[in-house]
Every structure is written in structure tokens, then in C-alpha cells.
Amino acid sequence: MLNHTHLKMGVIEHPEAPYASPLVLVIKPDETYRVCVNFKEFNKITVFDPEPMMSPDDIFPKLSCSQIYNTTHSILVKDIGLFQWRKNRKTITTSRGLMRFNIRVMPFGMVNSGSTYNRMVRKLLDGAQRWSYIDDVFGHTIDWITNKEMLRDFF
Fold first, then answer.
1. Model pLDDT for residues 104-143, shown as the tens digit of each residue
2. SS3 of residue 44 by DSSP
3. How confident is the model at residue 33 (pLDDT cuts 50, 70, 90)?
4. Phi, psi (rounded to 5 degrees) for 71
5. Neighbours of 53 (CB within 10 A)
6. Of the candidates 153, 155, 125, which has an alpha carbon nearest to the alpha carbon of residue 62?
């Protein structure tokens, strides 16, 4: 869990913040625990971002004429940074007082995490022969040569 080493490494800090969210333990399918942040109350005061997500019905017809398919999973999620003024959103309550993560990632569970990710991927893939659905990016081509060029362009 969070400890003195994390403080020394600069991963977390003791902030002063106007609000914070509690840590919760969630039981995983293998019956081990995952530490999560419960953003339920914070999400209630967050302005909802209506950025749309493509549906399978939007994507599958575009894939139908291709012969080669590839998928990239969650490649970009951890690269979505938060601006300094948004850091307080990542403040959590612990038995050792308030703590805040300094790492620049979009936390799981915030109401607009998906919208932020979808907007970034939509802009990144603008004009590319790739489609995003949840946290996967699908590519499709007719032949290996085109597929190789598309993958090189993507990466």
C-alpha cells in the first residue's frame, strides 16, 4: 500500500486540498484485493463531458471488407496527464491523512475518464484507418503491405 518509500520517491505527497476521495478494497475474481479510489462523491460535483464513444454498430461495418485485423489494447490510457490545477482531484483519504498522487495519469473511476480518453484517441487517429472502442484500437487492411504501413504510421 502507500508508504514512506512512496513519499520519498515523490509518487505521493501530503497535500492541503479542498476535497478528497476515500480508498476502498475491491475483491478481484481470484479473491485477492485491489486498492481503488471511490470517486463517487467527487463525480457528483463534476461537470459531465458528453464526448461520444463509438458503438460496435459504428465499427463493424467499417471492418467488413478487410482481410487483416489488429488490436492495440490500452496503449494510451496511462499517458493522459492531468494539469497541475487538477491535481487536487486525485487527493485521497488515508489513515495517515490526506495523500495525493503526483504521477500524471488519468485515475480509473472518474466520471470523465472515458470521455477524455475517447477524445484524445479520436483526435490522434483522425484520418487513420483505425477505430477506437472503449480501450482498444482496431486496425484493418486488405493486405500485408498496407497493414505494415498502417502499423508503422500508428506506432
1. 666 778 888 888 878 888 888 787 767 777 777 888 888 9
2. helix
3. very high
4. -130, 140
5. 14
6. 125
Are 140 and 129 in contact by the 8 Å Cβ rule? The answer is yes
End-to-end CA distance of the chain: 34
The secondary structure of 81-136 as a DSSP string is ---GGGGGGGEEEETTEEEEE-S----TT-TTHHHHHHHHHHHHTTTSSEEEETTE
Q: Would you call 11 helix, strand, or coil by DSSP? A: coil
Phi and psi torsions of 43, nearest 5°: -65, -30
- Calculate the average pLDDT of the chain: 79
Is the Cβ–Cβ distance between 75 and 61 less than 8 Å?
no
Contact status, residue 115 vs residue 122, Cβ threshold 8 Å:
no
Average pLDDT over residues 23-34: 91
Q: Point out which residues pair with 26 in neighbouring strands.
A: 34
78 pLDDT above the threshold of 50: no
The single-letter code of the amino acid at 20 is A
Cell of 76: 494510451
